[in-house]
Design goal:
The complex is a heterodimer of chains A (about 180) and B (about 160). Chain A is of the alpha+beta class and about 180 residues long. Chain A has 8 helices and 4 strands. Chain A folds into 2 domains: about 100 residues; about 70 residues, no CATH class. Chain A has a 4-stranded mixed sheet. In chain A, a hairpin with a 4-residue loop joins strand 3 and strand 4. In chain A, helix 4 packs across helix 5. The longest helix of chain A has 17 residues. With about 160 residues, chain B is mainly α. Chain B is built from 2 helices and no strands. Classes of the chains: A alpha+beta (about 180), B mainly alpha (about 160).
């Protein structure tokens, strides 16, 4: 962990300690979405550093929070970061908030991918399975990915459980390539 | 008696005359012939001495030459030995070079075989394996396009998860 990460981690820890109760599962996903978008393109964060009039800046931040559906508690954090010229840390802070939140709530986030649309009962079965596997409560996001051909994939920061035709093909490919070396 | 005394005087005079003649002869011999004889003898002596010196010098030279011949014989022997050694080492080097050439040939052949094998593997890696995987993927997609089959697969999977 470098200095930048350490600093971002401290901001995230402080934020979660203060506002963990206000971060719901849907907020968690909003933070995740904001993180994904901003890590792709963080030009908008640089805009926040421009010397706007105070009121304009306030409006801009509110619009920013609304755009990413973030809770208003982020307002103070953003203002503080702008004042200390550390707004560039915002993306890392969001990432660490996601981590801290999982630690705080003792829930593990899983990205569940299936080859076909699943009904609620099927998703519940998968959720229970993953809870048993990780020995913890889980938060999940489910999506369909035809690339799997058929099967499932559950990915968290520590676990990868996959049983799909695509995974098997990749395994065969790896074995063939290793054998040909 | 006279005759006798005359005879004695005569004998004495004769003797003196003889001595005088002997002296004169000796004198003339000494004055005229002796230096020439001396010179001739000296020349002869010098000649003999020079001959002796020459003989000495020649014998020394002969000794030197003998020594040189001996030395040269040794040198020739040494050169012969060196030549023989050099010849042997040349033969050895030639043999080694032949062996090295053989080894290099073997190595080159091994390398060629290795390269060929690797080339085959490279071709397999670059074309055959991706083609096989792509074809397998297409086949799997075609198989699981059938909803019944994909549903069965998912149900089996979910059944395992329960």
């Amino acid at each position: 962990m470098n200095g930048k990460d350490k600093l971002a981690s401290r901001y995230a820890q402080a934020f979660v300690n203060l506002y963990a109760d206000k971060i719901t599962e849907s907020e968690f996903f909003n933070i995740m979405q904001a993180h994904d978008i901003l890590s792709e393109d963080n030009d908008i964060l640089l805009l926040l550093e421009f010397p706007f009039a105070k009121e304009d800046k306030k409006t801009f931040i509110n619009k920013f929070l609304k755009k990413f559906s973030l809770i208003e508690e982020f307002f103070n954090l953003i203002v503080m970061l702008i004042e200390t010229n550390r707004i560039v840390l915002f993306v890392e802070i969001l990432e660490f908030i996601l981590w801290e939140f999982q630690d705080y709530t003792k829930k593990i986030y899983f990205d569940i991918t299936a080859s076909d649309t699943l009904n609620d009962s099927e998703i519940y079965t998968i959720k229970r399975f993953l809870m048993k596997l990780s020995n913890s409560d889980i938060i999940y996001k489910y999506r369909v990915d035809k690339k799997l051909i058929v099967g499932l994939r559950a990915l968290s920061s520590n676990f990868l459980w996959e049983y799909s035709a695509y995974a098997k093909l990749q395994k065969v490919k790896r074995a063939l390539l290793e054998e040909s070396l | 008696m006279w005759v006798e005394s005359n005879s004695i005087v005569e004998i004495i005079f004769k003797f003196i005359n003889f001595l005088i003649i002997l002296f004169i002869m000796g004198y003339f011999f000494r004055k005229s012939s002796l230096p020439g004889i001396k010179l001739a003898l000296q020349d002869k002596l010098n000649y003999i001495v020079s001959l002796r010196d020459k003989i000495k010098f020649n014998s020394t030279e002969i000794e030197k030459l003998d020594f040189d011949i001996e030395k040269n014989k040794h040198e020739i022997k040494n050169l012969d030995d060196k030549l023989s050694n050099w010849n042997n080492s040349c033969i050895l080097q030639k043999e080694n070079e032949a062996l090295s050439a053989q080894k290099i040939e073997i190595l080159i052949n091994d390398k060629r075989v290795f390269q060929q094998e690797n080339f085959d593997k490279f071709i397999a890696k670059k074309t055959v394996i991706p083609a096989v995987i792509k074809e397998s993927e297409a086949k799997l997609v075609a198989i699981f396009k059938d909803e019944k089959k994909s549903k069965k697969y998912m149900n089996d999977l979910l059944g395992f998860m329960k």
